[in-house]
Design goal:
Layout (H helix, E strand, L loop, with lengths): L15 H18 L8 E5 L5 H8 L3 E6 L2 H9 L5 E4 L13 E7 L15 H15 E11 L4 H13 L2 E7 L12 E2 L9 E7 L14 H13 L20
Parallel strand pairs: 1-2, 1-4, 2-3, 4-5, 6-7
Antiparallel strand pairs: 5-8, 6-8
Helix pairs in contact: 1-2, 4-5
Amino acid sequence: MASRGRRPEHSGPPDSRMIDIQTKMTERALELLCLPENQPCYLLDIGCGSGLSGDYISDEGHYWVGIDISTAMLDAALDRDTEGDLLLGDMGQGIPFRPGSFDGCISISAVQWLCNANKKSDIPAKRLYRFFSSLYAVLVRGARAVLQLYPENSEQLELITTQATRAGFTGGVVVDFPNSGSMGKGLQSSPLCSLATSSQLSLARAPHKMARRGLMKKSREWVLEKKARRRRQGKEVRPDTQYTGRKRKPRF
């Protein structure tokens, strides 16, 4: 049995059915990334495992870096001579790359593990926020992240999307396995195969958190929205008045 909070490790080489499923999911993820045609991109694969998704990324002419918490899975990727660079790391501790390093990000069946905990000190909401905020930083402006996941329930999906939004991402959920009943209501369905309930979280890194709404920086609307966002984050903010966002005369 796999430990809570981390992905299960599979021994032995992947069978043809697993490879086919992983390839289809990766193909769907790249489709949702909306990458420029005929242009190689530098992508991040979170929870890369044995490199099956990376193989498809390489076949499509892109370059990639994979990060995974499992040494066994990374060893399997090395044995398979995958073309990407590999890094051992816990995504819940943040993504350790320089800002603006990647043109896009995919993750296949990994992010839902952040909703669990290995120890008492692991707080899912904090680990998710640390993951999304660091992911936001390592993407170039306007880039997208597509995260395929298997949430256990609607509460997990809401927890994930809430922390992604809090970190600055925009986007939405695409249900690719719409057999889940309540979770599929009101969401766009795009059947891929019928193994289990799965969701694609398609996120976009906006050039500026306010710019996407057409708000001029330092304007009254800009200031009010910034204060409202800080209130939602539980921070202490001064009350709004008629002078909020008002330009002050220069002082001598």
